[in-house]
Amino acid sequence: MKAYVLKGIGQLEYEDVPMPQLQSGWAIVQTGAAGICGSDIPRIFKTGTYHFPMIPGHEFSGKVVKISDEKHKGWLGKRAGIFPLIPCMKCAVCRTKQYEMCGNYDYLGSRCNGGFAEFSAVPVWNLIELPKNMGMKEAALLEPASVALHAVRRLKLQKEDFVVLLGLGTIGLLIVQWLRIMGIRKVLASGHNQGHGQMMMKVASEDYQYLNLDRNPDKKFDMFSWVMQYTNGEGAAAVIDCIGDSESMKDCLDCVKPGGQVLSVGNPKGDICLEKDTYWKILRKQIRLTGTWNSSFYHREEDDWHSVIKAYCKGALRLSELITHELAFEQLHTGLDIIRNHEEYHNKIVISNRSVI
Q1: Beta carbons of 45 and 9 less than 8 angstroms apart
Q2: Of 261, 258, 263, whose CA–CA distance to 243 is shortest?
Q3: Beta strands 59-67 and 26-35: pairing type?
């Protein structure tokens, strides 16, 4: 089979590799579509991964073509989304079904081979059956959509609350959709691409406001004054940080109102340091500061993955509009170049094997 093999930092090669081996409780999935995540860029080109060689790709969907155990034969031929985190099933959080916080997990596409391959080995436990009205490319967005829902569920919000989001990218565009679904009417988002602002108006709400920071070089002043203007000087009930650096955390603590909430979503780009006067705001404003990681998946209709599928089937969650580029499976390098070069507008880029439906 063909696969994209990461042999070292910046050394991603499209080549023939052996078919994955089956172990008990696992299945072979033929990839239908795979999305490029923002985390794939540093993994491939900057920081590397846990070991080499490695097949990246953790946002993918496909069709089950082989199973290891007779008891799982019902999965043969079914279309599936794939929860990429493989929990240990033994630790304290696993015993309470909080698998996303497992401390001894494996992970498709970063710790073991993932979806940038024609076929992938996946635990049957990690499969979720797709509804008939969900295509493979939309199913490749189940993972980021579930991550976004998991994040929003960490907040306690009232419909009249002002919510501020810093860093409007793919996860941010999914978060604002969940805020709209939950009835939040007042959302202020900032970012560095006018296209993302236009996308937010399209998939979330025309009433949500966007600040394009590329047109406002004095970010600190513009962010604080902008939020205060819209909130009548009170600050936001909740600020969501999808950036993950010292400056964004300072903006969060400046812009949140006393007694408000700050939610950290973005993976840190490096050490995050706060000046004493900034740290004081956590104490004096009595801010509720919380983090979020991954998504919940435990085979119940209320978990994040099943909730995403339910919202999609109702037409409330819009996924296909977030895909700006659908490329052939052989064009992964083209997609990676689009993201790295910043020469054309892009949001979610998906590579597809259209023979798998």
Answers
A1: yes
A2: 263
A3: antiparallel
- What residues have CB less than 8 Å from 187, skipping those under 6 apart? 162, 163, 164, 165, 176, 179, 180, 204, 205, 208, 209
Position 216 scores a pLDDT of 60
Q: What letter represents residue 283's amino acid?
A: L
Contact 338, 346 (CB under 8 A): yes
What does the block give as tokens for 92? 């304290």
What tokens were used for 60? 């993918």
pLDDT score at 52: 97
What's the maximum distance between 2 C-alpha atoms anywhere in the chain?
Answer: 63
221 CB-contact burial (10 Å; exposed 0-12 / middle 13-18 / buried 19+)? exposed
Model pLDDT, residue 200: 98
Beta bridge mates, 64? 29
State the pLDDT at residue 220: 54
Query: Which structure tokens are listed for 42?
Result: 């540093």
List per-block mean pLDDT (blocks of 10 residues) for the chain, which spans 357 residues: 97 98 96 97 94 97 96 96 98 97 96 98 98 97 98 97 97 98 97 94 96 70 86 97 96 97 94 96 98 97 98 98 98 97 95 89
Q: Round to whole Å and give the CA distance between 124 and 28.
A: 9
User: Which residue bears the tokens 């054309």?
Assistant: 344
Query: CA triplet 240, 193, 42: central angle to 5 degrees?
Result: 75
Angle at which helix 170-181 crosses helix 194-203, to 10 degrees, equals: 30
